[in-house]
Amino acid sequence: MNSKACRCFFLIFIAVLFRAVFLLIIPGFGGFQQYNFDWFHGSSSVLSYSNNRNGVRKDKFLEVPQIAWGLNNQKIAVARALLTARMLNRTLLLPSLSASLFYKEVDLLQPISFDKIFQFERFNSLCNGFVQLGRFSDISNKTDVSDLPKGSGRKWTAERDLDQLRQFREDPIIDGFEVIRIVGKNPFLWHDHWPVKDYAKVFECLVLVDEIAEEAEKVVSKIREIGSNVTSKTDSQPTPYVAVHMRIEKDWMIHCKKLEQRNNISQICSSKEEIMERVGHIVGLRDPTIVYLAVADDLLEDGSVLSGWREGLLPFEKKKLGVSDMYSKYPYLIQSAIDYEVCLRADVFVGNSFSTFSSLIVLERTQKLIRMGVTAGSCDADVRWPSYAYNILGESGGPKRWMTDMSGSSLRAISYGSNNISC
Known about the structure:
Elements: H1 4-25, E1 61-63, H2 71-87, E2 91-93, E3 96-98, E4 111-113, H3 120-126, E5 133-134, E6 145-149, H4 158-170, H5 172-175, E7 179-183, H6 196-204, H7 210-230, E8 241-245, H8 250-263, H9 272-279, E9 289-294, E10 313-316, H10 318-321, H11 324-328, H12 332-344, E11 348-351, H13 356-371, E12 387-393, E13 399-401, H14 412-415
Parallel strand pairs: 1-2, 1-7, 2-5, 6-7, 8-9, 8-11, 9-10, 11-12
Antiparallel strand pairs: 3-4, 12-13
C-alpha cells in the first residue's frame, strides 16, 4: 500500500465493489431508470415489471383493433395502447389508424398504417427502452394468440380494467402466449391508468414522415413569406404569425352545446365574433401580425371567417393562402397532421381548451418550454411561444394564458377537455 500503483488499484477495487453492491440492492442505480417505471400512479397501488436490462421485450407482442376518431384522439389511443403494452412488458404490433372520420360506421373506415403517418424506426429510436413498436412479420407463430376482451359500459370501471391487466400480466399461462390480442371497439375509450408525463413521452416520439412534414413546411414557409412582405423595411424582426384553431364548425357547435348543458358551464362554445374579439386583445401582439385559421373548411356553415378582425391582424385560411389544393389531395387524417404541425410551430397559438387537437398542441408547446428551462406552470407574459384558450376570458379582454399541468395523474383533462388550464 506504500506505492502509488497499489493505492490506485485498491481504490478502483473498492469503487467496483461498492457499485456492484448498490446494483444488487437498488435496481435503478448506475443508469437511467427506464427499466423500473411505475405503471399505475394512483393512491392505492403501484405496478411495475421486472428489471429487464434490454427494455420492453421484443419477442412478446400486443395487438390492438383498428384505431378510429380524429387525428389527436388516434394519437391518444396509440399512446394508450403503447402504455398498455409496456405494462404487459410487450412490444405493440404496428397499429392500423383510420384515414377517414366515419368513426361510428366501422365498415366505412379507411385503414392506414401507422408508418404512413409517423416514422417507425425514428419512433423506436426515440422511445427506446420505454415503449416499443413491432411489425407483424416479427411474429414467429401467428396461431399463438390469447384474446384480451375489453369491457364496456358503466360497470366496466377503471379498477376492473386495471385488475384485468394485472391478471394478464401476472398469469404465467397467458404471458406464455406470443401475442395478446385486445378484442373490443374504440381503443380511445379505454380506461386511463397513466400520468400526463408518460403520454407526453410517447407523443415526443411521434415524428411525421418526411412527405407530410415537407407539406407542413410549405405552409409555414408560405405564411412566413407573406409576413416578410408586409414587414416594414426598418423592422429587423420578422412578422410573427398566430395560429388559431377556430372551432366553429357545425358538428363542433352541436357537440359543445351538449357539453355545456351536461356540465352546467358556459365556457366551452365560442362564436366567431367572440374568438375574433379575444384574439384581438392579446397583450403584446405586434402590428401587423399574420393570423392563420386552422379550421375544417368543409364543415363550415359561415364562410366569412376572414372578415371582422381588428386592424393590424391579417387573417389567412387555406384558400387565401393558396394551399387548399395541396390539402385536398390528402385524406382527413393527413390534412389534420399538416394543420397540427403548422399550429405547433406558430409564434402564438390560440385554441379551445375542450378540444383534443388544441390540448395536445399546448402539451407539446409546454414540453418545449420546459426543455428550455421554463418552470412548469409559468404564465409570464414574456414567455416565448405562448398559448391561449379563447373560450376562457383572460386579462385585458383577451383569451386566457394556457399551459399544460404536467403533474396530472391521467390524461382525462386533456382528452376530454377542461376549463382548468393551469394559468
